[in-house]
């Protein structure tokens, strides 16, 4: 019989053993009579089922004969965790059986007679309660708000993470309600005991708190329901059921108390309950946390920044805040700075968060020990994931699982227990205190070598996924099979969504790979992502990203690779940092490396970047010469895309020089060639078209062809929308609005200004430009505007893509 099967057979085996073991019910003279606990019965059943004597199990497990005997007789009912683990190993239990074995060890003996149901001492209302005004208002609206005719008042289920203040919050809600003069019936449901209260025990405990219910305790739930309804009809009460284990424990109670003011708290969401309203409590707002700390710490004369840091290190969790506040308050010689010195040590933080019988780690442990072994392992491994949020794919990578659906199911179970926070969609957040707890458990389970191997696996998976995502934007590359091992993507949009959502993870992994000297990985990933950098100009880290790639390429001693990544770096200096002088030097270094490699294509791109940077610096002679050199190098390499971009740069330079008619002819010719190409709708060609339309609008305006400028701007906006880049759309709108103003169509211009402001949002750095357009349009209408002198220059991308400078 397998160990898990033996567990299912316990009831049968133990009943037969009772006939042969009278000694375990009676102690020696002078000792108290003891009854075996559920764990003692289970332990004996498993031992006997394997034909093990006390001595042989002791030899297998390392647990003394006396300890095993005491546990089986019931003389000892609270074994330590290491004792339980050692016995499980000695018995050879599988992971499922070990979990059941541990739950039995944690169970407390309960009387079978419901008349002996526990009493209830309600928790007190804390004097220093802070915050939660929104949640309390929402809860009172549920419990005491107006009802529609025929509508029944729902029960309120309050759930949340360990230490989040569910019970305290429930007491505060009931204390602030209009019905506060009614007595509150309170029962602690012992939800985290392996044998929580039964519904009949709960009803018995509730009835014992009502006047006039001193009659014989109910024998069944039907009798309990009759007694309850008769009593509350005369004297209404409110009910608080604290720490529910599951739906089946409280569902009968909610039915019996239907219509009463009833609040249930649980770490689980109790999603299966019908006809209830739910309130999920999260961390406090930061100002609420600071207010609570000020109330708890009499000597809290520290500056706001110090209290803010304390609150952050406590994750804004009320229990953690109360613990640290109590620690400082109980030590007059301490101040907040003393506390901060201890809290900043990450490895010691959970040990610091203990004050008397309040302990954050103990609160989390109650939920953790409810987990089955595989879910517990998932919780431990995801503690290695940094960042604010992550998805199920990354969690699966952390446990090296290909069963994405199963991992998602287990993440939901962690969320339901409050160990994880669901952030919408496929995103989850592991709060810092939970991460510390999981990390501590992980280090207890595996050694440092395995930890490093798993970190390396997660890093490799992230960078492999990044390479595959970037490949969707690289012309001529098969994105489905590109790159190292990682997740795949069904479309370019899905790839782009992942790149942005997981940036905090892959950026850290990329930097770690660079620091560890994984140079080939770094250059491969940078090469795969450089086309996407044109799409996500607003990220803000491209200069650092390509700087690491340049270092890696130099370490590898490959001049072609060095030229390539120096070119990407020059692009970032032009577009992102705006250091055009530096960009000229970087691009010239790229040109030198390309010549060493005898690679005319990279030489062409290096000259292109030199010309582009010089043009933005108004060094048009150097810019024109570099553009001509780029055309020559691209032609030698047979690089048609490069030739078109270099010609477009040459045209922009001519436009800057005032040669507008010649520039118009060249840009129209470029657009005709690109739009007539078989891949006209490719990302690369759309980028080129966009850049051409930007400059074409300026050229048309310069020669007074306002209607042509309006037409070109409208087409340019459509192209920009195809690129899915709001900033590019806004930049093209700037040109189009200018054309509308020049043509005298102020009404259409104002409509487009409003559209641009909606697109950008109020916090955008570009919004002020469109606000200036409003004023200019007003001047046009009043006839007081002076003719503007627009600067046609703008930044372009890797392949001539126009971008905000």
How does this model look, in words?
By secondary structure, the protein is mainly alpha-helical. Among the domains are: 3-109, lambda repressor-like DNA-binding domains (434 Repressor (Amino-terminal Domain), Orthogonal Bundle), CATH 1.10.260.40; 116-281, 3-Layer(aba) Sandwich (Rossmann fold); 286-362; 370-446, Winged helix-like DNA-binding domain superfamily/Winged helix DNA-binding domain (Arc Repressor Mutant, subunit A), CATH 1.10.10; 680-803, Tetratricopeptide repeat domain (Serine Threonine Protein Phosphatase 5, Tetratricopeptide repeat). It has a 5-stranded parallel sheet with strand order 2-3-4-1-5, with helices on both faces. A 3-stranded antiparallel sheet has the order 8-10-9. α4 (54-61) packs across α6 (81-91), α6 packs antiparallel against α7 (95-106) and α23 runs parallel beside α26 (519-533). The N and C termini lie far apart (74 Å). GO terms for molecular function: DNA binding.
């Amino acid at each position: 019989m397998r160990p898990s099967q033996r567990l299912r057979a316990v009831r049968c085996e133990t009943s037969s053993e009772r006939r042969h073991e009278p000694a375990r019910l009676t102690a020696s003279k002078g000792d108290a009579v003891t009854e075996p606990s559920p764990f003692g019965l289970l332990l004996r059943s498993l031992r006997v089922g394997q034909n093990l004597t006390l001595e042989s199990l002791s030899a297998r497990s390392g647990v003394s004969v006396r300890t095993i005997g005491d546990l089986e007789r019931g003389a000892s009912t609270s074994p330590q965790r290491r004792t339980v683990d050692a016995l499980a190993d000695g018995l050879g239990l599988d992971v499922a059986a070990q979990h059941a074995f541990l739950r039995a060890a944690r169970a407390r003996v309960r009387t079978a007679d419901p008349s002996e149901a526990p009493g209830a001492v309600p928790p007190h209302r804390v004097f220093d309660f802070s915050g939660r005004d929104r949640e309390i208002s929402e809860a009172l609206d549920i419990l005491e708000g107006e009802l529609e005719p025929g509508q029944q008042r729902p029960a309120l289920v309050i759930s949340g993470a360990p230490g989040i203040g569910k019970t305290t919050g429930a007491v505060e809600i009931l204390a602030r309600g209009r019905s506060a003069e009614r007595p509150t019936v309170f029962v602690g449901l012992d939800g985290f005991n392996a044998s929580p209260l039964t519904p009949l025990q709960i009803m018995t405990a509730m009835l014992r708190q009502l006047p006039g219910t001193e009659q014989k305790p109910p024998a069944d739930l039907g009798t309990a329901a009759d007694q309850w309804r008769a009593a509350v009809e005369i004297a209404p009460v409110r009910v608080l059921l604290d720490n529910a284990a599951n739906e089946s424990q409280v569902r009968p109670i909610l039915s019996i108390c239907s219509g009463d003011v009833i609040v249930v708290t649980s770490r689980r969401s109790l999603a299966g309950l019908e006809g209830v309203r739910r309130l999920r409590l999260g961390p406090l707002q930061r100002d609420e946390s600071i207010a609570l700390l000020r109330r708890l710490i009499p000597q809290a004369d520290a500056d706001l920044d110090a209290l803010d840091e304390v609150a952050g290190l406590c994750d804004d969790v009320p229990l953690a805040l109360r613990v640290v506040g109590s620690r400082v308050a109980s030590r007059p010689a301490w101040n907040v700075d003393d506390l901060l010195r201890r809290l900043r040590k990450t490895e010691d933080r959970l040990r610091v968060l203990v004050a008397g019988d309040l302990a954050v780690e103990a609160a989390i442990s109650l939920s953790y020990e409810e987990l089955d072994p595989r879910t517990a392992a998932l919780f431990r491994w995801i503690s290695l994931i940094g960042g604010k949020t992550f998805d199920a794919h990354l969690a699966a990578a952390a446990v090296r699982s290909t069963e994405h659906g199963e991992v998602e199911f287990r993440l939901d179970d962690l969320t339901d227990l409050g160990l994880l926070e669901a952030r919408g969609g496929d995103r989850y957040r592991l709060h810092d205190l939970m991460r510390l707890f999981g990390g501590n458990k992980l280090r207890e389970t595996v050694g440092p070598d395995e930890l490093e191997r798993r970190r390396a696996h997660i890093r490799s998976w992230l960078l492999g996924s990044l390479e595959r995502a970037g490949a969707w934007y690289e012309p001529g590359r098969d994105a489905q099979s590109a790159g190292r091992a990682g997740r795949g993507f069904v479309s370019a949009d899905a790839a782009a969504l992942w790149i942005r959502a997981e940036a905090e993870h892959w950026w850290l992994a990329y930097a770690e790979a660079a620091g560890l000297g994984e140079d080939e990985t770094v250059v491969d990933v940078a090469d795969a992502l450089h086309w996407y950098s044109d799409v996500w100009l607003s990220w803000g880290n491209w200069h650092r990203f390509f700087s690491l790639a340049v270092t890696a390429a130099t370490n590898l001693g490959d001049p072609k690779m060095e030229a390539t990544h120096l070119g990407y770096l020059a692009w970032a200096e032009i577009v992102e940092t705006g250091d055009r002088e530096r960009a000229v030097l970087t691009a010239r270094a790229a040109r030198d490396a390309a010549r060493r490699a005898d690679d005319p294509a990279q030489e062409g791109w290096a000259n292109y970047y030199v010309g582009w940077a010089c043009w933005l610096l108004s060094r048009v002679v150097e810019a024109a010469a570099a553009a001509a050199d780029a055309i020559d190098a691209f032609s030698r390499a047979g690089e048609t895309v490069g030739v078109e971009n270099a010609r477009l740069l040459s045209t922009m330079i001519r436009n800057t020089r005032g040669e507008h008619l010649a520039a118009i002819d060249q840009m129209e010719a470029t657009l005709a060639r690109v739009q007539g190409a078989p891949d006209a709708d490719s990302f690369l060609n759309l980028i080129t078209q966009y850049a051409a339309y930007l400059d074409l609008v300026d050229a048309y305006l310069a020669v007074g062809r306002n209607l042509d400028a309006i037409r070109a701007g409208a087409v340019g906006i459509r192209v920009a929308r195809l690129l899915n880049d709001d900033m590019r759309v806004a930049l093209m709108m700037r040109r189009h609005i200018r054309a509308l103003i020049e043509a005298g169509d102020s009404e259409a211009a104002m409509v487009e200004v409003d559209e641009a402001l909606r697109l950008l949002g109020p916090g955008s750095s570009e919004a002020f430009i469109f606000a200036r357009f409003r004023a200019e349009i007003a001047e046009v209408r009043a006839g007081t505007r002076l003719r503007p002198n627009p600067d046609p220059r703008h930044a372009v991308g890797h392949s001539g893509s126009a971008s905000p400078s």
